[in-house]
From TrEMBL:
It holds the Pfam family TetR_N. Residues 31-50 bind DNA. Residues 8-68 form the HTH tetR-type domain. The lineage of its organism: Bacteria, Pseudomonadati, Bacteroidota, Bacteroidia, Bacteroidales. This is TetR family transcriptional regulator. One of its GO terms (molecular function) is DNA binding. Keywords: DNA-binding. Signal peptide: none annotated. It comes from Coprobacter fastidiosus NSB1 = JCM 33896. PROSITE patterns: HTH_TETR_1, HTH_TETR_2.
Length: 210
């Protein structure tokens, strides 16, 4: 294995360790020493790759965004595909990430609440804003053409993400109270998916839609 490959592998391990700790404990409660201990290296080793914890956060959040948002953009922009099918595929993309990181929705909400200006700055510095702009513009273009009902984007955002994240944000409650007899949490999520699609489709449905 080359030195460059070893370096890349170690950097990946650091990012993954930091992601686990940030999601589990929060940004403020996680130290660089905690990350170094989890990886099995000393703190200077972590600082060699990420000079500050802010840089570490950007790398962690960037890895999450880059694994998800471009995929969501590609799905949404497929305007020849029925909106219900697109919504279902977007839900699948989020489910894949959230099932692997079930506390991720809570972590994101906490970080937005902790310091929204920093959170927003991080997204901007990752050059990820254009993905969100492209998704918004694509949907608004369909609304202008009459393919979708004209809906304020903020209401569409709140509707979709509320429906999507609530079962993950309340996972303990779902597992202990809301599951049917012999039902697993993943089975409940699968049953919940059509409700997300139905509610969002009802919001966007246009009587004149082709």
């Amino acid at each position: 294995m080359t030195e460059n490959k070893k370096s890349e592998d170690l950097e990946t391990k650091i990012i993954e360790a930091a992601k686990e700790l940030f999601i589990e404990n929060g940004f403020a409660e996680t130290s660089m020493s905690d990350i170094a201990t989890k990886v099995g290296i000393n703190r200077p080793g972590v600082h060699y790759y990420f000079r500050t914890k802010d840089k570490m956060f950007q790398a962690v959040f960037g890895s999450i965004v880059k694994s998800l948002i471009p995929k969501v953009q590609d799905i949404i922009l497929q305007q020849d595909t029925p909106i219900g099918e697109r919504i279902g595929r977007v839900v699948d993309a989020y489910y894949e990430v959230f099932k692997a990181n079930p506390n991720l929705p809570i972590f994101i909400m906490k970080e937005m609440h902790r310091d929204f200006d920093y959170f927003s700055k991080t997204i901007t510095e990752m050059h990820s804003v254009h993905y969100f702009d492209t998704i918004r513009n694509g949907l608004q273009n369909e609304m202008k053409k009459g393919k979708l009902k004209t809906v304020p984007m903020r209401f569409l955002f709140l509707t979709f993400y509320s429906l999507l994240t609530m079962p993950f944000s309340t996972k303990n409650m779902c597992q202990n109270i809301l599951l049917e007899e012999n039902e697993t949490y993943d089975e409940m999520l699968a049953k919940w998916k059509p409700y997300i699609i139905t509610h969002v489709c009802n919001l966007l449905s246009n009587e004149n839609q082709n």
